[in-house]
Predict the 3D structure of the following.
Amino acid sequence: MIKKLFFLLLFLISCTCPQKILQDYSHIKVTEVIDGDTVKLANGKFLRYLGIDTPEVRLKEGGRFIYSPQPFAKEAKRFNQRLVEGKFVRVEFDVEKTDKYRRLLGYCFLNDTFVNAVLVKEGFACVYTRPPNVKYADVLVDSQRKARKEKRGMWGVYETVDHSAAHRYINQIRTVKGKVVGTYKSSNCVFLNFGYDYKTDFTVVIFNDSLKYFQKERINPAVFYKGKTIAVSGRIREHNGPQIIVNVPGQIEIYE
C-alpha cells in the first residue's frame, strides 16, 4: 500500500509540475555533440548552451534541416567535442529552463571549466544573451572582448565588416562597424541606425526588456550612441535590412 502511494505521489508531481526539472544535472554524461552550442545528454535530453551562439552546422530550408556548415561551424563543433563529448558535466540553469524546441537551456561546467565561456574565449562562439537569462553575461562579454583583442578563432580569420557590406553576411556571425547616424525609440525597442534608409541599411536593435541593463550603466541608448562610431558582434539577421540584436552594453564597442 505504501509503495502504491509513493508511485501515486510521483505521478501527481510530474503532472502538476510539467516545467520543473526533476532530473539531477549535477553529474551527467554528454553522449553526443550536435554542434558548437548544443549537446545530447545521457538521459536523451538536448542541452542548448545559454548566452552564446556558434555558426550553424545545419540550416533550415523548406521546413527541414539540411547539412550546410556555415564558416567556422565545423571548427566550433570539433572544439566542443574535445571539451565535453563522453565526459560528465554539471549543468547550471538560469530563469528559463527550456526553449520552444523543448531543449534544456543551461550553462555547462566540466569540473571547474565553464564551457560556454571557453568557447567564447577561444573564438568559437559569440555572445548572445537573451533576457531574463543573463546570469553570466559579464563573464561572457569579457571573454569575447579578450578573444577579439587576441584575434582568436573566427576573430582572427574574419575582418571587421563595414556596415555598408553587412547585407552580404546574413545569418552569419560577424563584427560590424560604423557610425550611428540616427536613433529611434519605438514601443518595442530602440534602433541604432547606420544609414538613412532603415529598410535597407544596417541597424542595431535593443529590445525593451534589455534596456534595464543599459540603465544600470546610466546609458540611454537613443541618446548615448548617436553620432558615435561603434562595433557590434553577433549573428546578422534580415529584417528591414541587416541587423544585430544587442542585449547588454558590453556587446557594443565604442571608437573614439
